[in-house]
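User: Show me a protein chain along with its predicted structure.
Assistant: Here is one chain, sequence first, then structure tokens.
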Amino acid sequence: MSDAPTAPIAVEDEVARRTGRLEKIIAEYGNPFHETRFDKTHSAADVKKQFENLANGEKTESIVNVAGRIMAHRNNGMFIDIQDDSDRIQIFHDLKNTPEKMLELLKLLDLGDIIGVSGPVRRTPRGEITVDASSLKLLSKALEPPPEKYHGLKDVETRFRHREQDMASSAKTRETLRNRFKMIAAIRQHLNESGFLEIETPVFHTIAGGATAKPFITHHNALNMPLYLRIATELHLKRAVIGGLAEKVYEIGRIFRNEGLSPKHNPEFTTIELYQAYVDFHEMIDITESIVEHTALTLHGTTKIKFGDKELDFTTPWPRKSMVDLITEHTGVDFYQITDPLAAREAAAEIGVKTLEGTSWGQIVEAVFGEHVEDKMIQPTHVIDLPKEISPLCKAWPGRPHIAQRFETYVNGWEIANAFSELNDPREQRARFLEQAEQKRGPDEPPHPIDEEFLKAMAFGMPPMGGIGIGIDRLAMLMTDSASIREVIVFPTMRPVE
């Protein structure tokens, strides 16, 4: 049983109680917040591993120093469980032989306090690896009460708003987030070993380019000019290849889009974009598959993983299917035969997809795919041959000028990757930008800006290349069986409390 009160009390009263205890501790033992270090020799997991062969009831003379947060406090401090970033471990005080001053300190400890303990290791008769405390030092006093006695936060909003409490109380949360960063490390290692150079590009842009998205706008005081938080890393990465920094470059970086919140969208998110000279989108398919397969093997040891009630099979190669053919398969409408935008708009309306007057053929195809096909793409699938009109940075097929050499990769009904054979003709790129600027984005949306700096860089001479963007957050969701993007972001964006 814990010494903490069992009856619910107001948070303000609990804070006052803990503050009162802190004042007593400062008066009798000194201020714990003045401590600057603790000579920790072992993690909790290290202790358990090193002494895993101890028999029940066996004692050692081996002294360890461990530290962590108090997660349980029983029998007036006789048994205390502490948790560090590796595991929990039990601390024992022999109350009959503990000095009176230490007994008084034990009574002033609370769940959540951070302590350092030194003492020999033993295994209890019941089999628990335990440190018999010969000394204890309070390193930090928790003035806020813990989340539901560390049984895990139940309120979803509280979980994400006070993530440190969620991490402290939930092993699943810690595992999910750690696996996200293991995944990123595995991708980085895989690309580095494949000859890619990781570089950094600006977060502040003078033009929100490289994608179609609403940007966040800020202001630079010294230059007295607006700046945009980047919506993509694409254009600067291409400029690095143009300049000869490397023929294979990538960046894992934050992207900012001033759009809605949903289980699959956060206003700031992480992507990996990479570009390789002298290859086309077919090579990008191979790289996409190798990245995802390597990630699955790193985290799970297999290419077949569970997501909810599904089994996702990342064994390569994955199917490649045309966007228009998939629409035909699921709706019976063949947009290859309906190339006039007005007729395409009418055909889309007949199957329940409404579009604005003046919408291009490519935008109509994209809308129909999103409405009728996207959520059916469960197993990894490369959707190829997207309309050129929605692919302004992509080469078209020479014999099919309205179709782009592009693919999007879908898993579990989610787009996780987007890749092109990159357009490298600055004349055609300018024409595409102008065409895109005239396309309707919505009644209140301004036209797409034209990035003259990028066009100038292209005119300097850009080699043919392939490029990919992969959503790190969605890939992490798949790899950790997480239904919401907020589960895989350490501190997701939250609406302010009213």
